[in-house]
Specification:
mainly beta; two-stranded antiparallel ribbon; globular; Glycopeptide_resist_protein; Vancomycin_resist_VanW
Length: 118
């Protein structure tokens, strides 16, 4: 919900970095034990719909139109060999401190592009 400007209330990072979003922008969901929660700070109700199909996660947020649209399209920039643990911080505002366990396997680096729809 970072790109939707909805404040994060509860978020648990994955145990190791994931390849589909930058460090600090992931969230583990393992119902009913681990959940992701955010606050609806808009003037009206919102509905959050998620679909996983053929290895693709789609999250749609429905509510009053803001004209904002975000699409994450991963692109492999380069392959980096395994490294010791990492820490991530999102934006200039501290949301959380995350520590990732060391990994012996290779990681793929992706680029995330955001855009606005008028």
């Amino acid at each position: 919900m970072l790109f939707a400007d909805l404040p994060v209330v509860e978020r648990v990072p994955h145990q190791v970095p994931v390849i589909y979003v930058p460090l600090g922008q992931d969230a583990t969901v393992l119902y009913p034990n681990i959940d992701f929660r955010c606050t609806n700070n808009t003037a009206g109700p919102i509905t959050i719909c998620t679909i996983v199909r053929a290895g693709l996660l789609t999250v749609r947020i429905y509510g009053k139109a803001t004209g904002k649209s975000v699409q994450i399209k991963p692109q492999i920039l380069k392959v980096i060999k395994g490294r010791s643990g990492s820490k991530g911080c999102v934006k200039k505002t501290m949301i959380s401190r995350d520590v990732y366990a060391p990994s012996e396997r290779s990681k793929r680096v992706f680029c995330v592009k955001t855009g606005s729809r008028n």
